[in-house]
Design a protein that fits this description.
With about 240 residues, the chain is of the alpha+beta class. It has two domains: about 10-85, no CATH class; about 105-245, no CATH class. It is built from seven helices and eleven strands. The strands form three sheets. Strands 7-10-9-8-11 form a five-stranded mixed beta sheet, with helices on one face. A three-stranded mixed beta sheet has the order 5-1-6. The chain has a three-stranded antiparallel beta sheet with strand order 2-3-4. A hairpin with a 4-residue loop joins strand 8 (about 205-210) and strand 9 (about 215-225). Helix 3 crosses helix 6 (about 185-200). It starts with 11 loop residues before the first strand and ends with a strand.
């Protein structure tokens, strides 16, 4: 017989291709296989932590606030959409564990770095941009994430020269970018293209997708530690990271 005070065993968990985060008024799920978002209102989302392993938590709630009972119809819909699974019911692919994203405190100093553009870097820019375009047209975000993890594992770890090397590479990338595409409404393409460009020089950074509510919006950028490489930190801090890889 189960002790009345024992913690109930969680019956479900997020599927391996799903990422989730709690925004101001809802929990947002990102289905990487289908390239789509799903928002669940805060009232419906709060009690689901009792049933779902890994369910994101909101900031501390007032103690006098009654938590509603879980809506099992919502749970059934999430299961039907293959966003929730039974624990250990499917094998997780090998992947590096995701790390918490440091707060974006600064932007990369492009003005203090000379953009050294060479034929090799121009070719690397073109191939990285073309590869990003092809991936976004023909592959799911899940396939891109898995390939990204695999590539990241092959790159060398950060060294003492990494920040200077990243500054040099990003300065060249930023100087080349206006001749080929605009970052407006192309944040995913820009981020994947920059990651590919950095990889040609053996450099690694974090690819981030963030979301916000009221109104809903999603955005992507590249970050190294607390340094934003292709955006303004004041902008990216408006978004809650839902994917960091």
């Amino acid at each position: 017989m189960q002790d009345a005070h024992s913690k109930p065993q969680l019956e479900l968990e997020l599927a391996h291709h799903v990422r989730a985060c709690a925004c101001e008024s809802c929990v947002v799920l990102l289905d990487l296989r289908r390239n789509r978002y799903l928002a669940i209102s805060k009232r419906e989302a709060l009690p689901l932590s009792k049933l779902i392993k890994g369910w994101p938590a909101f900031d501390a709630q007032p103690h006098n606030t009654d938590t509603p009972l879980p809506n099992h119809k919502t749970v059934q819909q999430l299961v039907a959409l293959e966003l929730l699974i039974r624990p250990a019911s499917e094998a997780a692919p090998e992947q590096a564990p995701e790390t918490a994203l440091p707060t974006a405190l600064q932007e990369l100093d492009h003005d203090g770095t000379t953009a050294r553009i060479s034929a090799r870097r121009t070719f690397a820019f073109l191939t990285s941009s073309a590869s990003a375009s092809w991936c976004l047209r023909h592959r799911s975000l899940w396939a891109i994430v898995c390939a990204r993890i695999s590539r990241k594992q092959r790159l060398r770890g950060p060294g003492a020269e990494s920040i200077e090397a990243i500054q040099s590479a990003c300065a060249a990338y930023t100087a080349l970018r206006p001749f080929f595409f605009s970052t407006q409404q192309q944040c995913l393409h820009d981020s994947l293209s920059l990651l590919g460009f950095l990889a040609t020089e053996g450099l690694s950074a974090q690819w981030v997708i963030g979301v916000k509510s009221n109104p809903f919006a999603a955005h992507s950028w590249v970050q190294r530690g607390d340094m934003v490489l292709n955006d303004q930190h004041e902008r990216v801090r408006q978004f809650c990271p839902i994917l960091v890889v």
